[in-house]
Amino acid sequence: MARHPARRAHILALIGAGLLIVTFGTMGIELGNEMARHGDLDRQSTAAGSYLRNLHHTTSEARICYYSWLARKQEQDASCYARAITQLAAARNGYEDFKAVQLREGAGRADPLNAVAQELQQISGWKPDAAAMPPEGEHVLTTLDNNLSVLSHVSTMDQADRVANMLRNTSWQRRLGLLGILTGVLSLISAGWVLDRSSLAAARAEASSRDLALRLRATLDSLSLGVAVFGADGRLWHWNEQLGTVLGLEPDLLKFGLPYDTLSAALVVGGAPLLEPFDHIEASLSVGQPVPPVMVECKGINGADLELCRTLFFAPDGAAARRGFVLTAADISMRLRSERALGEAQKLRALGQLTAGIAHDFKNLLTVILGNLELAADHDQPDHVEQRQEYLSAATHAGRRSEALTGQLLSFMRRQSSTPDSLSLSDLFSFLGGLLGRIIGPRIVVECGNGSDIWPVRADPAQLESAVLNLAINARDAMPTGGRLRIVARNVTFSVNADLMSLPVEDGRNRRVVSDPTPLPAGDWVRLDVIDSGCGMTDEVLHHLFEPFFTTKEEGAGTGLGMAMVLAFSQQVKGRVVVATGERRGTEVSLWLPRAVAVDEVTGVQQTLLPRATPPAVKPQVRPIQVLVVEDDAAIRDIVVTILGMAGHRVLEAADGEQAFDVAASAEGKLDLLVTDLQLPGPLDGLTLSRVLAGRYEDLAVVYMSGDLTPDSPSPAGAVEGAHLLAKPFRRDGLMRAVTSALSARAGV
Q1: CATH number of the structural domain 418-497+504-594
Q2: CB neighbours (10 Å) of residue 204?
Q3: What is the pTM of this model?
Q4: pLDDT tens-digit series, residues 717-745
Q5: Which CATH class is domain 218-336?
Q6: 626-746 has CATH 3.30.70.20 classification
Q7: Can you spell out the DSSP letters for 222-286?
């Protein structure tokens, strides 16, 4: 293999390194000699020698001045003595540092040093007065002078020894210098060998990198999506051939170093660029931390559906020169078409299931209504009044169930909540006792509790009735060969929050699921159980039990909304649904309903609500008014006109907005009330018609009718102020209450 071109640089580096080693070796030898000549002049040793000389001089001066004072008794000798004694006393401050240096230089000085310390201690207690010298003072000064002389002599001898050692060590320093040069030469040889091996390894690595780059390039070109790699400065580094094809670019646009802004300017559809501004990318790169990819779906300049994705990358060592971002472009036209087709198929399937199931339920209800009306028509004799009234009541009840079913569907689809009421379960059980036998069939024995000692619950009566009927029908389908269905209730009080899944297993039904895993709040609850003796549920059915449109029945035999509606009902009343089942143990569905309580406004104490008796319908008393009824359905229009006419009002009618406008223009007198459907054929819908007539007739009251409304629906946008909403289907008392409310609201505006 050929040598790496960087080998010449390695040789030059070897020569330079050799020159540096020789130069620095010579300098090191000279520096070593200089340090050897001045090494013993240590700062602490110099300071200690100076301290010793000053102390010795001060001691001699104190003795000389004292003897002079004894001989001549002159003041200057006394002052000289006092100054010397003061300096000796002050010398104690630096004595410990001096002692440490002396002990380091020689181990045989401990006794003189200790003696000097004691003598300085004695002198520090003297008065600086020659006449006040203690009797033993001359002896102390003499001893101190002798000990200091001993220390000075020893220090001088040690210094001579150090000088001799310095001279002896000079030859060793030369030998060490030579050894350093030889070591440097050997190091250069070793470095040359290592560098030569490194050049071979670098050549192999470069060849491997070139091969890897070619493989990566081939891989990028084989991808079905376009890839572009940009540096942190926004310049194009790499790209594949598919990029230009997917984005619909000119063949010669992509080139090395292409600015990102230039590419963004070429990808503009409808005046808006497809790529995000480079400032946003630059800000993300400056943070220096990975961020989630930025993805967008858009139409390309060639009309294709594109998915653009921008991803940042950073070098492991954090170098700014090796960071950037990758732009990928994928043509998702085929995928979107497949997703749209699949979505349409799923919607059609769900709509078919829902339509078939709802049609099945409504056919049952219509069968009950029509059958009872036919029976009532057959019993037209005076002695058949009670039986005819029974048939009419059954038809009326089936109609109300139809109304409740449509309301539940709207509430489920729109997630609207109903207003809970106080309900006695004894009334529910007495009603279900006669109804379930006809619905469930003769092969299944139905047992209902009396509910006389059960607390009232806070729930909507129609929705609770519908929920129990749904559960009963499910139980009937689980017992195709017959069985027993029990509906019972019990009062339960929890002193603390209760986990319903931890309650004891009953009758071997050990597989359970709960609608809400959070604990049930402490307090009073009513547990309503619907229990069948069927074969039970599998784990898969339990797992999907509360999902909308999930059903185990045959195609078209059910909507799959039964348990979903039961779940929605329990959520509205802030209760729970617990389903317990077991193999050959049947299924128990428990509705946990809150007890109905009220707070006394005076005492603030909660009180139990008793079931409220249904007051007799009172016909609202309103003054005779002129009303315009607009409804495209002739049957509904006739009912509304008849009810308002029976109330004594003058009623005008129209089938659409344009006809209503003409009727109002030709009417005599003031128009007091407009009762209109929201959805009318033609250019004038109910909202537009009401605004036009409200501008012409002052204090016009408005009632909006629609089958899309529920009791909790908000007022539609553009409605007349003070208008009242009337949800279809409605009855006579509901219509009259809406009329009265609309007139009262308009009068108060």
Answers
A1: 3.30.565.10
A2: 12
A3: 0.37
A4: 888 888 888 888 788 888 898 998 888 88
A5: alpha beta
A6: no
A7: H-SSEEEEEETTSBEEEE-HHHHHHHT--TTT--TT-BHHHHHHH-EETTEESSPPHHHHHHHHH
